[in-house]
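Shape is hard to put into words, and the shape of a protein is harder than most. The fold becomes a row of whole numbers, each drawn from a learned catalogue of backbone shapes. The outcome of that step, for a single protein, is printed below.
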Amino acid sequence: MPSTPLAMPADALVAAALTPITTSGDRDERVTAGYLESLLADGARGLAVAVHTGRGAGMPMDARAGLIRRAATLSPIVVTGIWAGDDVERAAGAAAAAGATALLMEAAHPHDAAREVERLDVASAASGLPLIAFDLYARPYGRHVRQAVLAHAGVHAYKPALLHDAIACQEGIDDAVAAAVIVLTGEDRMFVPSLLWGATGALVGIAAAATPVTARALAAVSAGADDVAAASRALDALARVTFRPPFDGYVQRMAWVAADEGRIPWAYAIDPARPSGLRDGERDHVLAVARALRGRVDI
């Protein structure tokens, strides 16, 4: 089945959303809807649910489908993840049936082009949806695999999320541009540089809270505005305290910010997969930086 075109502006900000949840594992439809609505109201043009920021890889398919259905009532752009451990045919078909408009494909075989392309074939056939190649720092593509993935007819966008590997990020963006594939940066710590290297839009976890900070930075670069440096400094200040060792602790840190902003109740600001090295003592520092940024870009 040929995939539909990617119905997303090249300069769109897609917020990689948290999954609001309590310590006992409870979710609330109203809390989730209010949270997602707040991201759209603050500058996101699309939603990515059950992705890495939302801990989608460890989530049952019925729970993912519920999040997709809720997001689809709010936004015309709904991205969801297909993970290395998924039954690709089942997961892709279920995502499409629930209302997803694009699939974010984590690599399962980052050094085996034939097997990775086969997964893309299956996802495309099962869903009919455009695919976004996800170059995640935990499972980065080998370059020959990335080039094969970007040449796949079903792949319409590329999301580098290589964290601090600037050289690999630049190479990936170059490969995507050469393949005429849209680049949606996932580089929270290299956000503005990745836009200057060739990304045009963004699909990022740092937009899961303090969303206007990310939206302003993207808009400033897209418009060639004079305040790019100020907008970049503001985003970098937030990224420095949220995307730091242990790096996977960013989900909990962003949940703290979201709760402090009133996007979700504090009882739902829980990351059940938070790394053991993350200490609650960080919270005050993270929140102090986020509060200083509200309404300003000159930090």
The beta strands are 13-16, 46-49, 78-82, 102-106, 131-136, 155-161, 182-185, 201-204. The chain has a mean pLDDT of 95. The radius of gyration is 18 Å.
